[in-house]
Amino acid sequence: MFFEWYIALSLLVGLVVFQMMLGVPVAIAFMATNLICAYLFMGDTFAFYQVVDNSTSLITRFQLAPVPFFILMGSLFFYSGIAQRVFSTLDVLLGRIPGRLCFLTVGGGSLFSTLTGSSMANTAMLGSMMVPEMERRGYHWRMSLGPILGTGGLAMIIPPSTLGVLLATIAGLDVGRFLIAGILPGVVLALLYTAVIWGQVWWNPANAPQYEIEKVSTAEKFRAFMINIVPMGFVVFMVVGLILLGVATPTESAAFGVLSILVLMVAFRAFTYHAVQQALLSTVKIGGMVFFIILNSSIFSQLLAYSGASSGMLRFATSFDVSTVVVLLIMFVALICLGMFMDPVSMILITTPIFFPLATQLGINPLWFGLFVLICLEMSQTTPPFGLLLYVMLGVAPKGTTLRRVAIAAAPYLGCDAALIVLMYVFPSLVLYLPSLL
Amino acid sequence: QDVLRAQTALPTQHTLSQSFIKHFVDIINEEDGAVRVNLLGGPEVNPQDRAVGALERGLLDILWIPAAFTTGSIPEAQAMMLQNIGIDEIRDSGAFEHFAGIFREKANAHFLAWSETSAGYYLYLTTEPAIGDDGVVDLTGLSIRSTGAYRPIIEELNAAPVAIPAGDVPQGLDRGVIDGFGWPTVGLESIGLQDSVNYRVEPAFYNLANVVMVNQDRWNRLSDEAREQLTRVALSYEQASMQEMDEMGEADLAAGDAAGVQAIRMEGEAASQYLSRAFDAMWDNVRTNVGDDITAELRELIYRTD
Amino acid sequence: MLALIGRLYIGLINALAVLAAILIAISIGLVIANVASRALGYGSFQATIAVTEYILLYFTLFSAPYLLNTRGHVMVDMAVKQLTGTPRKILESFIYLIGIAVSLIFLVVSIDIMRSAIARGHFDERSIDLPYWLLYAGFPVAFGLLAIEFARYLLTSRSLYDQTDYNEGL
Ligand code: NA
Ligand code: NA
């Protein structure tokens, strides 16, 4: 049957979103939508065969292998206790700076970001570790909740990033270059966060009261740094260095990331079967959940193409004589709105087949645009009412924390994200310089 | 007017898909005759390796696809790149009809066109290869990216085949994971790899074989005028695509020269040695997939040794 | 007897999840071995990419029933949580029925695709050629178990939306 592109588009997107709102598991919502729409568009039960047949195509791409690998790597890092070890060392190194726990959060969070690919894991870990500590020290809730929500999202941008691999694969970007493109913007974002904390403490020192801590000698600090921080360079070398040396391709190096954490676990005498078991279990939980959505939603984007919805939308959007900035702004708003009730993976799968061709048409560099989408995704996970990171934070924060407080505390950090997008727009080389060296 | 839903198995912006769009889709639609082609898109519509299934099930009416991508369900199609008699003789000798029978039986498809046949394949290398006693390049010690179409020749020339995904090729070359790869004689510039390689091994081997198929049931339902129009445009597309490939091949060579790519050129006896080793390696591969009898039959139809 | 079947059933679901974890570990080992072999000059194993790609598929299929059983599939439970009593029962049943229907369609169709691929000798061309039916061999088990799990939610007092565990994510 023939459908006008806007009817096909409304049917596809409407059915998925409607079912998701009802509470149908996301993957099942995609499955049902695909089967219904394929039948409508193709007018024959052969459509079911194509839906099932096409489902094994995207999921069996080698480029997706880093997703479970990075999840396992990050989980091993947490469950082995190496993460806590790195954190307490950073704590010692910082000494007696006003608002030090906030800076510790940003510093530790950024470091964790380079070692894990998951912003939820990051938020959960920092939230359960740092919030009670900061409350005990009399920090204002703005100061205890905000920085964690900010840095939790850094993990999405700074490589390795599981979501980054996914986005790159689905949008057909070069995975290696895309991951490396996130380094500079990630660093800038961490600096912006630092500036916000500094500003908040300067504005009202009572936000982060001073307290006495144990004095540690410089020699002690140096020792702790060498033992606990420097070896982390080994992990970075295994993930990034092997690519640069030409030993492994970007896809393959993720496996070496896992190997390097295992080596560190043995070296730190932190290797336990329990840790490995726990890490594998979360790989099954997170990776299995994400991949089951991908298995079903890859067909969704094919139906968008088959029905003419993507191309019709593209023609429509480019028929107006509007500037690139306006289009980016519209996409920004669309992503933030979708993120109010959708998980980032579904968002990538729904928007990529529509947004990327449009960006290409407008002459926007795909790597730049990919990073733009990634930052929007991060922001959308921190906006009420349904931002997932907000709920993760609510889940681990002490009793009495409300969604309102979490959202208000996150606001200045969302401002930083927006500022980063503007900076990226003004200075595209922030994104494009490092990948151009590869 | 009948509207036919079409897909290309390569992205629509791809050089080879463009040849199909320019010389077939656009011509049909400009004629505004008995049929119109509604090009739905490239692999974003159905993944490359699922497109034949979609055509067979009638979800697509027309499919343009490199023959090598269809060998999962039509193993004989692998031999199509080994023809060296040219499209005119293929049409005259009944070879085309023979393959049409195979496509009808195995993919429920009417075989409409066999296109871009004047282009071949080159090996591109980052390191200068050794030359063996018989004057043929010897790739011992080199790692070459291999996919189905190139594995036999790569192994025949003593190189180590390396399986890495297409997306990893640029960095694989720059960082030395691979020392080269095979690529059609057209389209290197469009993927921007001419700066990453230093040598091109000549002459070209094999011949591109892209096919246009129409779902057999849809074909049967079309009017005589529609079938006549499609067949006529398909024939002229086969010819036009060859000229297109020749021109683009020259443009690609020029781009390669501008980027400092040097030719390693085998001539005379060495060249024919090289080609016969390349073709025989692939014929052996065909043989393992379809058996001795069918291989002999296909070889007789489309391959001449002088 | 019923209790034994129940235990065997849960055992099967958990065993598949363990298998999924083992498969990921194997693929990591394979990739590392392949790179090492290549770097040391022994050449690469052609099978690495194809096997890893199939592992990604089987990892997905084998973890899906476990995730449904442990409420690990991501979903928005706002609407369901707003409701109580009969309206909630109706909405939940509707959702479970969708789950059962789509799982059964995948189950039946995958078997038919396999049957035809075997009959016609299709293969899947990758870094090594594999028989095409292998792509779908895990479907009947995975989608069969998913259909049973949804049916259990439908027919027993268990609810998919009761105590949602802490949902890990990206
Ligand atoms: Na990260
Ligand atoms: Na129930």
Automatic annotation (TrEMBL), chain A:
Q: A Pfam family in this protein?
A: DctM
Q: Where in the cell is it found?
A: Cell inner membrane
Q: How does it sit in the membrane?
A: Multi-pass membrane protein
Which terms in the Gene Ontology molecular function aspect does this entry carry? transmembrane transporter activity
Q: Does the keyword Magnesium apply?
A: no
Q: Which InterPro entries match?
A: DctM, TRAP_DctM
Q: Where are the transmembrane segments?
A: 5-22, 64-83, 103-127, 148-172, 178-203, 224-248, 254-272, 284-304, 316-338, 345-364
Ranges for the TRAP C4-dicarboxylate transport system permease DctM subunit domain? 15-429
Cellular component annotations (GO), alphabetically ordered: plasma membrane
For this UniProt record, give its keywords in alphabetical order, as a comma-separated list.
Cell inner membrane, Cell membrane, Membrane, Transmembrane, Transmembrane helix, Transport
The record's annotation in NCBIfam families points to:
dctM
| Free-text function comment from the UniProt entry | Part of the tripartite ATP-independent periplasmic (TRAP) transport system.
In the record, the note on similarity to other proteins reads: Belongs to the TRAP transporter large permease family.
- Subunit structure comment from the entry: The complex comprises the extracytoplasmic solute receptor protein and the two transmembrane proteins.
What is this protein called in UniProt? TRAP transporter large permease protein
Originating species: Roseinatronobacter thiooxidans
Automatic annotation (TrEMBL), chain C:
Name where it mostly resides. membrane
Gene source species: Roseinatronobacter thiooxidans
A Pfam family this protein belongs to?
DctQ
Q: How does it assemble?
A: The complex comprises the extracytoplasmic solute receptor protein and the two transmembrane proteins.
Q: Under which name does UniProt file this protein?
A: TRAP transporter small permease protein
Give the keywords, sorted.
Cell inner membrane, Cell membrane, Membrane, Transmembrane, Transmembrane helix, Transport
How is this protein annotated for GO cellular component? plasma membrane
Q: Which residue range or ranges hold the Tripartite ATP-independent periplasmic transporters DctQ component domain?
A: 28-153
* Recorded GO MF terms: transmembrane transporter activity
Q: Can you supply a Gene Ontology BP term from the record?
A: C4-dicarboxylate transport
